[in-house]
Design a protein that fits this description.
Layout: H1 5-8, H2 11-15, H3 17-27, H4 32-36, E1 42-45, E2 60-75, E3 85-93, E4 98-104, H5 109-114, E5 120-130, E6 133-137, E7 140-143, H6 149-154, E8 159-162, H7 171-181, H8 194-199, H9 205-213, H10 218-249, H11 262-269, H12 276-289, E9 296-301, H13 307-320, E10 324-328, H14 332-346, E11 363-367, H15 373-385, E12 388-393, E13 407-413, H16 420-427, E14 435-440, H17 446-452, E15 457-461, E16 471-477, H18 482-497, E17 501-505, H19 535-544, E18 552-555, H20 561-572, E19 578-581, E20 594-599, H21 607-614, E21 624-630, H22 637-647, H23 651-661, H24 664-669, H25 688-704, H26 712-732
Parallel strand pairs: 4-6, 9-14, 9-15, 10-12, 10-13, 11-12, 13-14, 16-21, 17-19, 17-20, 18-19, 20-21
Antiparallel strand pairs: 1-8, 2-3, 2-5, 3-4, 5-6, 5-7
């Protein structure tokens, strides 16, 4: 008999269509197995109640408390003019504080009968403020009696699980539904190999599910958590290990540069020596390129650590060995910028087949979606004939029409904007799989790299090249201290007066229709009702006000590509003093003479994004200055985030802070690692050891049995994970 179907049973059969519909729509739960994996968020102890004193406003809460008193009031209203209106006020307490519950109209009869002083119950509702006191209006409640069999059974054990719930479905209703399906947990097929489970003294999966939903002690919860973390980490790492293993079986052409070819000529032209880090990482890459299996390497480094130089030398090595190299950039601005800087760095070595081109030269072509037909035709021709050794482009490179003569290396810039499918589409353009180098400018803590980019080997560049200047960063509290903002514009004028240039970054363009639906406010945004500052408005105000007389230009994503390019050229040439832009300048823009950056509404950006943006200044010999302007109050989480950015230039440190502040889901949300896990109990930063150990175990298992023939239960778990991933990918289109 096949045991899996018990967990695949649709919830509508088990719980009835109405409940199943709410679970599917609001919690994404469709089967018995889904519901069993909907774990409690926390547990309440019978003897110890929640802190009513710490309740958050406007949130749905579940509290366990005791009724202190209950009073029924009558009043006159439009609906009940003769003073027949009824309002029940119940005060509950948990030792830490008191909370008012109110019930109106016909809704008062049942609670008036149930909620007698001394009664213990669970209450769920939305916390609101009335007469400066916190209250729950018409909360749902569940009495905690120890007398009826059903209650004793349902609330068995001293710990009451509190589930992630919604307004439509209270925590205890989810709890009851789980009690209904809990017997099926016995049939859960265990994905962990017995040797691993026994070796690490982990409880079985059925036992872990029972303990997490119906714990008798805190030790039960701990044992269940440890086991379920291992499930998530191990299944994910097996998926990644299998991907690495499959890639390692593929044949690739070894690409070894000749002794006196293009690379040697290029190195001889360089006006500086490579840093030790660049030399070490280049060696790792060249060693990979010389093997007959495709390289899969993640190159991560600090903003401005010289990743582009390392990638260019790898591309030249491949061209030297007779192949072609393609560099994929996330935006047109960035593709054009890379193309320009590569051509500049290579000089006559980029003029293959042209008059004045060097003997070893090759052709470097640009391919983007907005190119004219003639230029595009020529670029496609140069690629298919092999005339162009290097092509730099956007996702236009992935289109079917693009054919290569002999694609040997793909460099992907800014990994998080490309999915695995896009990487694979480009890799499919080689006669044999090309080597792959992925660059990311957002430094990632080691564990996250192992979880998110686990199918890639990692190289890290952590020292800045000589001649890069330090960047001073300061928070400018515009609301508390308006004169600080005035001083910020004076500093910009001073930088321009000294012959330098500045960026001003805004979160919005300003020509979009303000859609009221999109203006959803987070609790933090409630502090300010205005929409985020916009490039077009700010540029106008600066040109007429504090920066009058300076040449101010704008740059944003909705401009025509030719206009964008023209603006960037004028800024790079020093003709524009101040560039007011959106985050299009976030990556790869390189203007060494730009020394100052003012980021407006800095609290609207993420930590790593601010770090990226800041990396655009201080790229020359003069020191950089970054001013983070915000109207957020001193005590807000947003201000703490900005203070963290101002206090360190270490991107790895900042990415940890960023992850601790954001939820894990965001990390894996952008992680197109071929196996996206919807992590429920595994926390990427906290569970560093589990992830590292799971990776080792996964490598051992996959090396011994790549097809997992001896581990059918693990295969099933893996199919479920990858299936979900495929579905999500298709939904996104």
């Amino acid at each position: 008999m096949d045991l899996v179907p018990a967990l695949d049973e649709p919830l509508k059969k088990v719980l009835g269509p109405p409940t199943a519909k709410v679970m599917a729509e609001h919690l994404g739960l469709h089967t018995v197995g889904d519901l069993l994996h909907h774990y409690p968020r926390r547990y309440e102890e019978r003897g110890q109640l929640t802190h009513l004193a710490d309740l958050p406003m406007d949130e749905h809460v579940t509290v366990v408390a005791q009724v202190a008193d209950a009073r029924l009031h009558t009043f006159a209203s439009a609906k009940a003019p003769r003073g027949k209106g009824q309002r029940l006020e119940v005060t509950i307490t948990d030792g830490s504080g008191r909370l008012q519950l109110v019930f109106f109209g016909n809704g008062v009869h049942k609670p008036h009968k149930d909620l007698l002083p001394g009664t213990r119950a669970m209450f769920a509702g939305k916390v609101s403020l009335f007469n400066r006191r916190l209250q729950l209006a018409h909360p749902a409640y569940e009495l905690l009696r120890a007398d009826s069999d059903e209650s004793v059974e349902t609330w068995a054990g001293a710990l009451i699980p509190i589930y992630p719930a919604t307004a439509k479905l209270e925590s205890w209703k989810i709890g009851k539904a789980i009690q209904t399906v809990l017997p099926s947990a016995q049939e859960a097929v265990d994905p962990l190999p017995d040797t691993l489970r026994e070796g690490r003294e982990l409880v079985s999966l059925p036992e872990a599910l029972l303990k997490i939903h119906r714990p008798h002690t805190k030790a039960d919860i701990a044992a269940a958590h440890t086991r379920l973390k291992w499930d998530e980490a191990f299944v994910l790492q097996v998926a990644l290990a299998r991907r690495r293993h499959a890639d390692a079986q593929l044949p690739a052409i070894a690409r070894r540069p000749g002794p006196d070819g293009l690379l040697t000529a290029f190195d001889a032209r360089l006006p500086f020596t490579l840093t030790e880090g660049q030399q070490k990482v280049s060696k790792e890459i060249f060693d990979d390129l010389a093997t007959e299996h495709p390289m899969h390497r993640l190159l991560q480094g600090e903003v401005g650590s010289g990743k582009t130089m390392v990638a260019l030398r790898a591309m030249l090595a491949v061209v030297d060995a007779g192949g072609q190299a393609a560099m994929l950039a996330p935006t047109e601005v960035l593709a054009q910028q890379h193309h320009r800087s590569v051509v500049e760095m290579m000089g006559e070595l980029a003029e293959g087949g042209m008059l004045g081109g060097a003997e070893d030269a090759t052709k470097v072509v640009l391919l983007t979606g907005s190119m004219g037909a003639a230029a595009r035709r020529q670029a496609l021709l140069d690629l298919v004939t092999g005339e162009a050794g290097i092509v730099i482009g956007t996702h236009a490179l992935i289109e079917d029409r693009v054919q290569f003569h002999d694609l040997g290396l793909v460099v992907v810039d800014e990994q998080h904007r490309f999915g695995v499918e896009q990487r694979d589409a480009l890799r499919g353009k080689g006669k044999q799989p090309p080597h792959l180098l992925v660059m990311t400018a957002t430094p990632i803590p080691r564990t996250v790299a192992m979880t998110v980019f686990g199918d890639l080997e990692t190289s890290v560049l952590d020292q800045l090249p000589a001649g890069r200047s330090p960047i001073a960063s300061h928070v400018v509290p515009a609301a508390d201290k308006p004169h600080f903002l005035a001083r910020a514009w004076e500093r910009v004028r001073e930088e321009v007066g000294n012959g330098h240039q500045a960026y001003v970054v805004c979160p919005r363009i300003g020509d979009e229709e303000d859609d009221p639906k999109k203006q959803k406010k987070s609790a933090e945004d409630e502090a300010e009702k205005r929409p985020p500052l916009a490039v077009l408005d700010v540029a106008d105000q600066l040109a007429k006000g504090p920066l009058q007389g300076l040449r101010v230009e704008v740059l944003h994503g909705r401009m025509h590509p030719d206009d964008k390019d023209a603006v960037m050229r004028r800024f790079a040439a020093g003709e524009t003093h101040v560039l007011v832009a959106t985050t299009v300048i976030e990556v790869g823009v390189n203007v060494p003479n730009a020394t100052a950056m003012v980021i407006m509404d800095a609290d609207r950006f993420g930590v790593s994004q601010l770090h990226q943006l800041r990396g655009r200044v201080g790229r020359g010999s003069a020191a950089g200055l970054c001013l983070l302007v915000t109207e957020m109050p001193e005590a807000s989480a947003a201000r703490q985030r900005l203070n963290a950015v101002a206090s360190t230039l270490d991107g790895f440190e900042l990415s940890r802070i960023d992850l601790e502040q954001r939820r894990e889901g965001d990390v894996l949300g952008q992680a197109q690692s071929g196996a996206r896990s919807s992590l429920r109990v595994l926390a990427v930063i906290e569970d560093e050891e589990v992830i590292a150990e799971a990776r080792q175990e996964a490598v051992t298992v996959v090396a011994a049995d790549p097809e997992l023939k001896r581990l059918p239960a693990l295969r099933t778990a893996l199919d479920a994970l990858l299936d979900e991933e495929r579905e999500q990918y298709l939904e996104k289109g």
